[in-house]
Design a protein that fits this description.
Layout: H1 2-19, E1 24-37, E2 49-61, E3 66-70, E4 73-83, E5 88-106, E6 113-134, E7 137-143, E8 151-163, E9 166-176, E10 186-196, E11 203-205, E12 211-213
Antiparallel strand pairs: 1-2, 1-10, 2-3, 2-4, 3-5, 4-5, 5-6, 6-7, 6-8, 8-9, 9-10, 11-12
Length: 214
């Protein structure tokens, strides 16, 4: 009994060290399906406008199952509308630099497997263009100008899964105006994103057979 107790006491620091969450980071890419609408949260209008997503994902652990995601990225937004009667189609292409600040809740204590994410996103408008076609012929092509400043805030919800160094997520985000009582147009994006994180640091063996951290 004393031997078992001594073994448990000696192994406790090792067990606690193994449970300490580890920060991770790595590149992230994806594709977004966007629209511009004046409806409710994550409501849809018109045809999908597809755009690229590229950035870097930083995961900072809070507990074993809760982490903070900080993910600076480039994202394409916009909208596509079509008038069948007039045979016209309009496309709005928008480019943003964004900084999502999300909380990630893992359903497993590992953490691996399914997770939920939610938080806010700060976006900065870079550039945009508006194009209109009729019967397949380009009618207009001019730069897009914002009616407010170049900053934009969005709320985001996501559902994903992680296994090993890979992390997949489906995310929806909806822009909003802070302290504005008026209903304005909003950017909505549904995206599929995948991140590859650098492997966790492993232990290497010394020549004398003991182990040390890298």
């Amino acid at each position: 009994m004393r031997s078992l107790t001594a073994l448990l006491v000696c192994s406790l620091p090792v067990l606690l060290h193994a449970q300490v969450p580890v920060s991770r980071n790595g590149p992230k890419v994806g594709i977004g399906m966007a629209t511009i609408t004046s409806g409710g949260f994550l409501s849809w209008s018109g045809l999908p406008k597809f755009g690229p997503i590229a950035g870097w994902s930083f995961e900072v652990p809070v507990t074993n199952q809760v982490s903070a995601l900080i993910e600076p990225m480039y994202i394409g937004k916009g909208s596509v509308t079509q008038n069948a009667a007039l045979k016209t189609r309009s496309s709005v292409s928008l480019s943003y630099l964004e900084l999502p600040l999300l909380l990630k809740l893992s359903t497993n204590p590992d953490p691996q497997g399914v997770f939920l994410s939610a938080g806010i996103i700060y976006g900065y408008f870079l550039r945009g263009r508006v194009k209109t076609w009729q019967d397949g012929k380009l009618l207009t092509d001019y730069p897009y100008s914002t009616t407010t400043n170049n900053s934009q805030w969005s709320a985001a919800l996501g559902l994903g899964s992680e296994k090993g160094n890979w992390m997949w997520e489906v995310r929806g985000q909806n822009s909003f105006r802070l302290f504005s009582p008026f209903l304005t147009s909003r950017n909505v994006v549904f995206s599929a994103q995948v991140a590859w994180r650098f492997p966790k640091e492993k232990k290497k063996k010394k020549e004398d057979g003991t182990e040390e951290d890298k």
